[in-house]
Amino acid sequence: MRGYTVCVDVGGTFVDLALFEGEVAVGFHKVLNVPSAPEQAALHGLRELLAATGTPAAALDDVIYATTLAVNAVVERRGAPTALLTTQGFRDALEIRTEQPYDLYNLFGPFPEPLVPRRLRLGVAERTLYDGTIARPPQRERVAEVAAALRRAGVASVAVCFLHSYANSASEEAVAGWLAEELPGVPASLSSRVLPEIGEYGRASTTVVNAYVLPLIGRHLARLDAGLRELGFGGRLLVVTSAGGMMGRQVAAELPVKLLESGPASGAVGVAALLEAKGAGDGDAVTFDMGGTTAKTSIVIDGRPLVTTEYEVGRVERFKRGSGLLVRMPTVDIVEVGAGGGSIAYVDAAGLLAVGPRSAGAEPGPACYGRGGDLPTVTDADLLLGLLNAAYFLGGTFPLDAELARRAVARHVATPLGLAVEEAAAGIFRVVNANMAQAVGVHAAEKGVNVQRCALVAIGGAGPVHACAVARQLGIRRVVVPDKAGVFSALGCRTVPPAFEHVTSYRALLDEVDLPRLDALYGRMEEHCLANLVGAAAPERVRFGYAVDVQYAGQRSYLTVPFAKPSSGFHRATLAAITRTFEEAYEVSYHRRIPGVPLEALSWRLRAEEPLPTRWPRLAAGAAGLLGRPAGAGGPGGPADQGRQGGSAPGDAPRTRAVYFPEHGFVAARVCRGRARLARERLAGPAVIEDEETTVVVPPGAVADVGDDLTVTIVL
What is the pLDDT of residue 283? Predict the structure, then answer.
């Protein structure tokens, strides 16, 4: 038996898989998702990949899994019927929020409906003070009454968030024990376990999201694990977190709120690892991950993706912070927009062309899939514009029907707007590119990043098709398309280290911090992280990262400040270093300092990480996907290696075809089948490189260089 790992990335439309032998990628696969049961699609793809490469499931050490199931369940409101138990008098915190409008010029701007309706938000007479003193313990009789009401309401999950429970969890723990007796089989999410952090609304909202998706994610991971065991798998099922870490299945099932941006995070971490491997780790980049359902963007600065401690799900206003459901968890800072290949185009009430966020998904999919969909999508437009090859979609295993695409665009867009079909398709292409460029530009502006100094790294099945058009709108001059870009997030899973994050609130003026108390606090946090860290055979192999939330006393916004913890314990020099770092960061963010105002520490953060021996895996010279050939057609090193050149896909590509470009209209573009034939070659646009899992579009006036590692670098 050789050590193998399979990485699986489950998106809204497709499931991507990558097989590794040690640190070397030896096989790839891509299958349509089954939205109602994504574990079935993952297991189906895994069976085909293992059969095609001759790899027994028993040879797998690990299955590393990334999924968008949790965030989709929140956005689509498909979670469990959930209740919230709070301190009496505080059940409306989910609706009061921060008491601030997200739009100063629209005082009546709508907010998303809370995940828990008011009738299921129930108060318990108890009170814990800010210092942890229990002034009034909860009464079991009241909890029994509440449990009876929840039983009658058919509640399947409960969130418990008491005032100041971050300072003392005893009341929440007592209630959890009583609920377990009164409501057997109904899980309880405690805010003191999910997020022991100051800030009532953020803690309550995050705990509710955890409870809302906990039954769904728990069942999903259990079914996936059972299916793997039936195949003969005896290793570990590991799950990628939103913060770009990896944890075990059991911990993931208990804390599913940590998985909301699981898939996109693996792509962002993978981009950073790739840039480091190429010697560009100190450069800045914007990731552009466009799949079948959404497009995601993140920013890599000095070789690391930006991470935030606050994240919003399901914004009512796409680009307005504060209009979504708040989740306070370390998360790779990602902005997601409903602009994927399956995004539906339509004429809105004002008679204007719009695209997304509604998606055709995998079932039925775009009209050109021939699976019953009759609404026009971005993929349909791309096909009509010559950007895609109907005979070579997914390496020729999934031919597209251009006539169905034409009918859908004609009926729903061209005819209502009085346009020719090609004009309507071009309009769809322009609108979706503008949507994505706006998302990238707004996100970068919020972070103070000049995107024109960055490279745009295009990944995802549709990313390389649209990347150059989006880059030109943003003024970005360089686009990078990695090899296997269409399954890149699955590759990225292999670059994610085992990691676990924890936070504890201890609010004090920085100059007045009790150092022995801080030492004890971090001692407990380190133990907690080690207990939840996957694969940490020896604590000395674990690398700890320390940070603290700091603000000027009296302000309501903070900056998260990293610092180094001395091996001998905390001392005043540590606090002085935190002060310097905060003031420098504050000046960068707000272009000023505020002398004479003391600093206040709020919450202390810890990330425990076991570094990987290799940041970026090597792609074997003969590594091939199953796209373009039947399953079971050989293993690595055999006849299947021809998969790069198309394998059993129908014929060679035509030398040229008419392709649409916004600035030029339809022009004759050179067509290349498979980038392995182009290593160390330079292409002048217009050109199209057809890979098995994606298509790279090079516009007129651009130059594309294909490196030895088959990375395509396009200079616009």
Answer: 72
Three-class SS of residue 560?
strand
When the candidates are 3.40.50, 3.30.200, 2.60.40, 1.10.20, the CATH number that belongs to 80-213 is 3.40.50
| Whole-number Å distance between alpha carbons of 90 and 96 | 10
CATH match for 274-339+436-493 among 3.90.226.10, 3.30.420.40, 3.40.50.2300, 3.50.50.60: 3.30.420.40
For residue 96, CA distances in Å to 91, 101, 113, 347, 439 come to 10, 11, 12, 36, 28
The mean pLDDT value for 456-485 works out to 94
Displacement of CA 657 from its chain's centroid (Å): 35
| Burial bucket for residue 104 (CB in 10 Å: 0-12, 13-18, 19+) | exposed
Bridge-based pairing state of the strands 14-21 and 4-10: antiparallel
Q: Is the dihedral of CA 630, 636, 637, 641 positive or negative?
A: positive
Separation between Cα atoms, residue 210 and residue 259, nearest integer Å:
10
What residue has token string 């994050």?
A: 501
HSE (CB half, 13 Å, CA atoms) of 334? 28
Number of Cβ within a 10 Å radius of residue 382? 26
Q: How would you classify the pairing of strands 236-240 and 188-190? A: unpaired
Query: What is the structure's pLDDT at 639?
Result: 26
Stated pTM of the model: 0.89
CA distance linking residue 158 with residue 622, whole number of Å: 51
The pLDDT tens digits for 2-54 are 589 999 999 888 999 999 998 888 899 999 899 889 999 999 999 999 999 99
Q: Is 575 helix (H, G, I), strand (E, B) or coil?
A: helix
The pLDDT confidence band at residue 1, using thresholds 50, 70 and 90, is very low
pLDDT at 715: 95
Other beta carbons within 10 angstroms of residue 543's beta carbon come to 12
Distances (CA, A) of 385 to 139, 184, 435, 472, 703: 67, 57, 19, 19, 21
CA distances from 662 to 380, 385, 473, 716 (A): 17, 10, 11, 14
Render pLDDT for 209-267 as a digit per residue (tens, 0 to 9): 999 999 999 999 999 999 999 999 999 999 999 999 999 999 999 999 999 999 899 99
Residue 538 pLDDT class (50, 70, 90 cuts): low
Task: Report pLDDT digits (tens) over 129-182.
Answer: 999 999 999 999 999 999 999 999 999 999 999 999 999 999 999 999 999 999
Q: What residues does each domain of the chain span? A: 80-213, 274-339+436-493, 346-430, 499-609
Please give the Cα distance from 86 to 84 (Å, whole number): 6
| DSSP secondary structure code for residue 555 in this structure | -
Whose tokens are 């109602």? That residue is 36
Helix/strand/coil for 488: helix
pLDDT band at 634 (very low <50, low <70, confident <90, very high): very low
d(CA 614, CA 611): 9
Q: Cα dist. 187→158, 195, 213, 627, 693 in Å?
A: 6, 17, 11, 42, 41
Query: What are the pLDDT digits (tens) for 618-629?
Result: 776 656 565 533
Write the DSSP string, 491-508.
HHHTTPPBEEEEEEEEEE
Please state the separation of Cα 149 from the chain's center in Å. Answer: 37
Measured CA to CA, the distance from residue 402 to residue 366 in angstroms comes to 11
